[in-house]
Write a structure and sequence with these properties.
The protein is of the alpha+beta class. The protein contains eight helices and 18 strands. Helices cover about 25% and strands about 30% of the residues.
Amino acid sequence: MSENAPRPTTGARRPCLIVNPRSGGGKASRFRIAERARTLGAQVFLIDHSLPQDLATVARRAVDDGADLLGVAGGDGTQALVAEVAAESGLPFVVIRAGTRNHFAMDLGLDREDPSAALEALTDGVERRVDLGYAGERVFVNNVSFGAYAALVQDPAYRDDKLGTTVRVLPEFLARHEGPDLVVRAGPLTVAGPDAVLVSNNPYQADDPAGLGRRAHLDSGLLGVLTARAETPAETAARLRSGQPHGLTRLATPDDVVVYADAPALPGLDGEAVSLPTPVRCRISPRSLRVWVPRHRPGAQSAERPTGWAAIRRVV
């Protein structure tokens, strides 16, 4: 058994689930997430989009009222807000795959077809310890993106076809990018003038040419870093398809990653247009989040350690 092998849970006595009824085109409503959670003894908070709501405050209030587990049925941005409260409170966290992109839920191996299956974690689950990324004071569960990458992950087509959209759209975004000048520093590495930067909570798989697909691990204690410089759209697209992209720097590092810009703020946190004051210092918090997942998950991956990511790979 590995040091971070999943461990059986004992069940939550007072779970609290925050539900976004609009997320993913109404998945939570279609799969009756709130009703099913209540039958399992959970207190349910439904997000009311007609009112201004601070979900972190909602989660902290639930903790103060005695909640011993926090869960979210919603997208990655909502999950990150509540995951931060769960981590700082030492409470377990449950993800319901009710958003549109659901990258975090996908990498946890949760059921693609039936989001409500994740509720089994409340009664027949295992606990995994996973890393959290921080950009300044903000938590991210997937990535923080700048420049052309930020524009790409917010493109509607990216939701349905990540790799295809990357190959088709990223070269165009790189070629026309006119945002602030960026500099990235990670340990001894400095990359000046990239047109796109992506810092991820754990590296993306090595066979993913643009670093926007799946992560093999969520507990490596490493930030993934990808930077890209513009070339002609045709050249970039051809190299992305071949898996030999030109102008990309890839790095996996336990060190802080600092993104400097000649602008006061940059957008792009877990696919949301969140404004981050510059310079943006990103760090990894190893195994700081206790995630409860169903014992049986159709997308669960091997717990082997990552290989081939210990060194910088620069393709020029």
